[in-house]
Design goal:
The complex is a heterodimer. By secondary structure, chain A is mostly helical. In chain B, helix 2 crosses helix 10 and helix 5 packs across helix 8. The chains are: A mainly alpha, B mainly alpha. Strand 3 of chain A pairs antiparallel with strand 1 of chain B.
Chain lengths: 174, 526
């Protein structure tokens, strides 16, 4: 569950408009806290040889061709974002996110987390599904986030609050 | 396909979730509405308190200004007109939309110079028109008019009356006033017909109402709190703010205070208590109570325009007014005489100044120069200098124009000369000519003359041809001097031919022809 921060988007805009240096510094700080989680998540993506061969790129035709697996592509698809996202169906916009953008990466991440690791495909993917709550479980990104135990989140929120304090100090009318 | 995402810091910005959530949070809605009512009550009360404070403040400021004017009137011996002036200002502010805190200082400045209420009121009306027409503030206009009344006309220049400095100096105040009225009359009426003017009237009326409310509020609070000064009331107003949320306690305090009013005995508490929930009725009761109390005190009534001292003192007031008017007229006459005297002095000084210019060395120099033998342009320049020295602006302008024109012509001439094509070099063709000469000389030198072409010896030729008999040979000389002998007829041997030619040549050399040279050269020279 993301932490709701009121005014984060406005703060970001204000930083960008009035103290661009502070905005850059804050973004750098956020990136520094997120990079370890992303790196860890990428390490959980298996090589091409570890997944069912039929799923690999070049071996699929038709609909599945679009989501055929390639280890490099899947790893590169895991990243972080420090720009605001679009509004989701619940009306929330995220300021900081970790993403798994590729189809194959998402399949590897979530296969079997709802219905169970059973059948012909998901048991052959390897790895383990880790995380709290069904929607925060996974084999790569969610696993790395769960193993991080909220440290990255804490650091990110601290960075936002620090930026807010610094900005308020600068913007104080004397 | 949607990205898998972990959102670490998010913010609610959309309505969709709220719409969904509101259906599931009925208790939250109830709490919110309850909170809203409480907030409204608090906010409303605070607004009322704020208005009350600003009203009281407006009244206090207005009262201070009124006292200032009253003092001034008293010092000028016009104390009898205090009430009338107050009524006049109240009516004027409603009619023109000019705030009374602007009207009072303006009127005061006019009264101080004219000493006449009637005159000042007329000038104030003019000042309002001038202010609206020129855009200057009323206080500035009134100040300028009051200064002009005593002869200081400097401030009138900003109104662009169309008068020169000299004309302004020579005009009387009446003339100036007439001129200004011609220019700006009707400006105030026109302004009030505009939207801005209408809003000004409304705003002014609201401010006047605030002052009245403020006055009544201050009086009421002084009654309630048994204070004799406003500072005490201010303290109680602060306390009242603390009790705003507690209506019952506030009403209780009010009732306790109202018990001290003598009028309560007449109304009765049952009527009051019944009226408490009905704010309008309660306020009407209080209003009537307040009105009666004020009437008893003889305070100024905004609506009825009543005042103390009416009726029985009117004759005294009229006498005082007549005396003040007479004094004002006398003063005006004195000012006019003084102004005329000043004008005469100025004219005399101008005449002296002009006469004095005769001894102006600079002018003497210029006049002397003009008598000399000078060019037309120099004459014009000197005349211009003289015109400037003698303040003859018309002549100066004319001469300056002529000089500028000639300068302009000079400039044109300079430009023309600058653009003239370069003059031809008379010696430009000499080189070519000399080169030709040189070439010709070289040619002549290179010609070697041909050998002297001797004249043909016709006698020798005849001798040779005769030796061949008649028709035996013919002879001639070519252009190059060659002699040819054509022997016709017989074919002779070579030896005979050689002999014949030898004989011929011998005969020729004997005759003196230079055939020897030919012999030496090995050719037949003839």
């Amino acid at each position: 569950m993301p932490t709701s921060v009121q005014g984060a988007l406005s703060l970001r805009k204000a930083l960008k408009d009035f103290t661009p240096d502070l905005a850059k510094q804050t973004n750098k700080e956020l990136a520094n806290f997120l990079k370890p989680v992303v790196k860890s998540a990428r390490s959980f993506i298996p090589g091409n040889s570890a997944v069912p061969s039929g799923w690999l790129v070049g071996n699929q035709k038709g609909t599945w061709e679009r989501v055929a697996f390639d280890s490099g592509v899947a790893k590169r698809g895991i990243g972080y974002k420090t720009t605001p996202s679009k509004v989701n169906r619940s009306g929330f916009r995220a300021l900081v996110s970790i993403l798994n953008k590729t189809g194959a990466g998402a399949i590897y991440e979530t296969a079997g987390r709802k219905s169970g690791v059973i059948g012909n495909f998901s048991p052959k993917l390897g790895g383990s599904i880790v995380g709290q709550g069904q929607k925060m479980q996974g084999r790569a990104m969610f696993k790395a986030y769960a193993e991080d135990q909220g440290k990255a989140k804490g650091h990110v929120l601290s960075a936002i609050f620090n930026a807010s304090n610094k900005f308020n100090k600068i913007a104080k009318v004397k | 396909m949607a990205d898998l995402r972990i959102d670490i810091a998010s913010e609610f910005t959309g309505k969709k979730a709220f719409d969904k959530a509101s259906s599931a949070s009925s208790s939250l809605e109830k709490n919110v509405s309850k909170l809203g009512k409480t907030l409204l009550a608090t906010f409303g009360a605070a607004k009322i308190l704020q208005f009350a404070k600003s009203s009281a403040k407006a009244f206090m400021e207005d009262e201070a200004a009124a006292v200032k004017l009253s003092n001034s009137l008293k010092n000028l011996g016009l104390a009898y007109a205090t009430d009338d002036i107050r009524k006049y200002i109240d009516k004027l502010t409603l009619a023109t939309g000019v705030a009374d805190n602007e009207l009072r200082p303006a009127l005061q400045s006019l009264l101080q110079v004219t000493g006449s209420v009637t005159k000042s009121q007329a000038m104030l009306s003019d000042a309002i028109n001038i202010s609206r027409g020129s855009g200057e503030s009323l206080s500035t206009v009134a100040n300028d008019l009051s200064q002009a009344y005593v002869g200081n006309l400097k401030g009138l220049r900003k109104y662009n009356l169309g008068l020169t400095k000299a004309e302004l100096a020579a005009s009387s105040f009446a003339d100036i006033q007439k001129r200004m009225n011609d220019l700006f009359s009707g400006a105030s009426t026109a302004y009030l017909q505009t939207y801005a003017g209408q809003m000004q009237i409304l705003s002014n009326t609201a401010n006047e109402a605030k002052e009245v409310i403020g006055k009544n509020l201050v009086d009421a609070l002084m009654l309630l709190s048994n204070n004799t000064s406003v500072s005490g009331v201010a303290g109680d107003m602060q306390d009242l703010a603390k009790f705003t949320g507690d209506a019952i306690y506030g009403v209780g305090v009010l009732i306790a205070k109202l018990n001290n009013l003598p009028v309560i005995g007449k109304i009765g508490w049952s009527g009051l208590l019944d009226a408490i929930p009905l704010v309008g009725t309660y306020l009407n009761l209080l209003a009537d109570t307040g009105a009666s109390a004020r009437a008893a005190q003889g305070a100024f009534n905004f609506k009825s325009g009543g005042g103390a001292g009416t009726g029985s003192f009117q004759s005294v007031v009229d006498a005082q007014a007549a005396k003040a008017e007479a004094a004002a007229k006398k003063r005006a006459a004195e000012l006019l005489a003084l102004q005329k005297k000043q004008l005469k002095t100025i004219k005399d000084s101008l005449g002296l100044k002009k006469a004095g210019t005769i001894f102006d060395i600079q002018q003497i120099g210029i006049i002397a120069a003009l008598k000399g033998n000078i060019s037309a342009e120099e004459r014009k320049r000197l005349e211009l200098q003289l015109a400037i020295l003698t303040d003859n602006t018309a002549e100066a302008s004319k001469l300056a124009g002529e000089i500028a024109k000639s300068q302009g012509l000079s400039k044109e001439l300079v430009a023309y000369l600058a653009n003239l094509p370069a003059a031809k070099n008379p010696f430009e063709g000499w080189k070519t000519y000399l080169d030709l000469l040189e070439e010709q000389v070289r040619l002549i030198a290179s010609i070697h003359p041909a050998g002297v072409v001797p004249n043909a010896n016709s006698a020798a030729i005849d001798a040779i041809t005769a030796s061949y008999g008649v028709g035996g040979a013919s002879a001639g000389v070519s252009k190059g001097g060659d002699v040819y002998i054509s022997v016709a007829g017989n074919v002779v041997s070579e030896n005979d031919l050689v002999d014949m030619v030898n004989n011929g040549l011998l005969n020729r050399s004997l005759s003196g022809s230079p055939s020897a040279i030919g012999r030496l050269k090995g050719s037949f020279a003839g």
